[in-house]
Task: structure prediction
Amino acid sequence: MIEALYRAADNRYDCGMKYRRSGRSGILLPEISLGMWHNFGEVDPLSRSKEIMRYAFDHGICSFDLANNYGPGYGTAEETFGYVFNKSFRPYRDEMFIATKAGYDMYPGPYGNWGSRKYLIASLDQSLKRTGLDYVDIFYSHRYDADTPLEETLQALVDIVRSGKALYAGISRWPLEATRFAMKYLRERDTPCLLYQGRLNMIDREVAESGILDEVEGSGSGFVSFSPLAQGLLTDRYINGVTEGSRMSLGRSLKPSQLTDEYFRQVKALNDLALSRGQNLAEMALGWVLNDKRVTSVIVGCSSVSQLSDAIRGADSPEFTAEELKMIDSIIFPVRKTL
Ligand SMILES: NC(=O)c1ccc[n+]([C@@H]2O[C@H](COP(=O)([O-])OP(=O)(O)OC[C@H]3O[C@@H](n4cnc5c(N)ncnc54)[C@H](OP(=O)(O)O)[C@@H]3O)[C@@H](O)[C@H]2O)c1
Result:
């Protein structure tokens, strides 16, 4: 069957999406980016993937987050992206900010994992083939590798940028001291690290508490938050238990054992608070992350257009009162001092 031609919505930059500058750089990201870790692999319906991606672009979400091994199976989210890019987005390439990464297990043998120069450079070449792109906008070291000299991993990022295969360099999930080293190393080679990717959500605030957010901001870099909805736990998805078709029901990176009595207590209280603010829990959870002005963008995962439209509304959340912020802390950390 011949696929209908796609033409992006003319009002895509006038429908309310706001853009934040990444540190001291020319990168401007939409407050919501679309993440392709789950839901865009070979096991997922291509028509749905395409619909979500087009809806994103039509609503000003020009930032797409990939990694070599997103799927399942590994590499297939990049293939899906490449398919949709070729059919729909190629004329809009210069408007798009496309990220990929390497650092987790991808292919067998000693060079298909971690942070060697050999792995990072070979993996990016493979990502470009799968996506059909000439270059990505940012290439991340996906994780810190304590066994490979940091200089080797970082010099690979410098050389990748100098080769033109990525425009910018980034790091993800690096601990504080290594982050400090990376920021300095890359800046001194005129390839500044312009984005740090870490998990930040109402439950998991380690990047704030460990000083990473401050370090990133102080270095003139931006921060993108992944899993802002704690993979769905900070939505009403599991408020009555495991729902059919959910990430947990599919056994993908969430386990039913996470649905403890304490979890149900928290999620119900958070849900009530969200409803009292006139929004759903997913919207409030995203609004909470974006309330931190050090955050450049939140990367959301979605298995439907309606989830993505919640995310877009979440970026337009009403301001939080001091009392509401305190209430969120006391729901999540009942025995800890509020932050
Ligand atoms: N750098 C890294 O190491 C790293 C690690 C993890 C993620 N990431 C990036 O961050 C992206 C987002 O991570 P994530 O998928 O864990 O994000 P998330 O946004 O915390 O969770 C996404 C899941 O939440 C559920 N959901 C979303 N909106 C909802 C709504 N309105 N109502 C109910 N449920 C809703 C969906 O679950 P169902 O699928 O069950 O519907 C969705 O798949 C990834 O795709 C990836 O690009 C990066």
